[in-house]
Predict the structure.
Amino acid sequence: MLDLTSVSKTFFAGTVNERRALTDVSLSLAPAEFTTVIGSNGAGKSTLLNLVAGALLPDSGTIGIDGADVTRLPDHRRAAYIGRVFQDPMAGTATTMTIEENLSIALARGRGRGLRMGVTRAKRAFFEAELASLELGLERRLKTVVGLLSGGQRQALSLLMATFSEPKILLLDEHTAALDPSRAELVTRLTSEAVERHHLTTLMVTHNMDQALRLGTRLIMMHEGRIVVDVAGEQKQRATVADLLGAFEKVKGAGFDDRTLLQ
Amino acid sequence: MIGAVELGLIYAVMALGVYLTFRILDFPDLTVDGSFTTGGATAAILIVGGVNPVLATAAGGAAGLVAGTITGLLHTKGGINPLLAGILTQVGLYSINLRIMDGANVPLLRYDTLLTPLRDNDLLGTAASIGIFAALVLAIKVVMDWFLNTDLGLAVQATGDNQGMIRSFGVSTHATKILGLALSNGLVALCGALIAQYQGFADISMGIGLIIAGLASVILGQALIPPRIVVIATFAVILGSILYRVAIQIALQVGLDPNDMKLVSAVLVVLALVLPKWSVLRRVPSIRSIRRSAAVEPTAGDR
Ligand SMILES: Nc1ncnc2c1ncn2[C@@H]1O[C@H](COP(=O)(O)OP(=O)(O)O)[C@@H](O)[C@H]1O
Ligand SMILES: [Mg+2]
């Protein structure tokens, strides 16, 4: 579903500020595979997601989505394939617009936008049903401006907006990190439910190793722009936080790519 | 005073255009001073050339669409900062406007214009003319409200709110910005075409400082009616435009020099922008937070 081949990205290449964010990363996700991504700050996790989304273009390598080469497509032309939720709860919604307006915008993902009414009665009924599934009472507040919602409510709404139009790929970048623990727990649960329900191929960055192990079917660890651990299935089920920390210490010492660290 | 209300209604068409860029797109567009004159000049020269006034007026508006598109292209494809892109178009239009008029002004008094029927029947400055102008402005307002609530209109609104978000849903913000700028300057130029016919001439300086009048109208109206939804916001803009013209009229009647009016307008806008930043006055809506004030936190002016 998602295929990255030898993707590299360097910021400010050729200057004193040069930063290699990704080095020769290859990654292939099967349909409906739910992959969690961990790694220390600056490991290149956000850059990886930005490259998939098209917010950044790679220096080299190719990116394919569902067989189509999207390497050079800008973000808005990839949007039909990709749903995103960002760390900042402000980032995923238009805060001066109402809940129903935001949902209408999201529902038209990747389709041409013409002169039909944005919010219709039929859509409203659909929005109410979808919002009810969040169990936050938002279904009674369709005309509330999103800026008035709490961070957790906004993130739950962003998640709904990213998923209910069933994109091929869902990208989550520490989308629970800015929330208090109980809200983070709620959004995490909603995430699992949405991924399950829509069979979304998902890349989820998290700083929480426990969460990375608990959720999803595959786990990758990044370090200095490379994927250094990649486990799935049984092996991921068995892995513990201690294993991950051990692997991380080994990578730090070795400083090179070793995908067999957990074996 | 009826004359001021009339003017306020006609200039409201321009103020609605300014609302579209400043408030909806969050794009401080200075094309306005030039495109207003372009609209007036185009309509005037066509009327003098014997073209039907309705068509001439429409052509004036269309010239504004083109002007706005150019500013939009300069900003999006050329990567030029919004203020500079607007100023470049505005300055360029100065020469173009002189070319269109083949001189610095075009008198219209001897020609049939859209306003000739009103003038001939002595309806200007009466309740009848106010009714007619009000109907025209409200019709434009209704169309604008409708547009902003379509799928495309929502995308334009979101562009001014959160570009990353609307792009992530598949909208080219280049396209929405160009569209918004074109429509805005189309309205501004349409207003210029009407004003030229109302005052009986087009001239090269008719648009100078107009952006301040537009801003003042938007700010004034929204200070009186805090807008939550587009339908109310556009109404507030029209009201603001009328109040602005009435205020100017009163200032003139108490003996202020007409030449000082631009300074008075500029000071008014400065006050409206600065006062809300002082903490005692935080509750007065600020330039940014008045756009659908309900949405924004107290410090949104600093966002
Ligand atoms: N837009 C950018 N401009 C310059 N450097 C960047 C940019 N984005 C990321 N980087 C750099 O690339 C590296 C990887 O960053 P990032 O992908 O954000 O890491 P992570 O999300 O894993 O913390 C870091 O060294 C960071 O400073
Ligand atoms: Mg990051």
Summary: Chain B touches chain A at residues 147, 149-155, 157-158, 161-162, 164-173, 228, 291-292, 294-297 (CB under 8 Å).
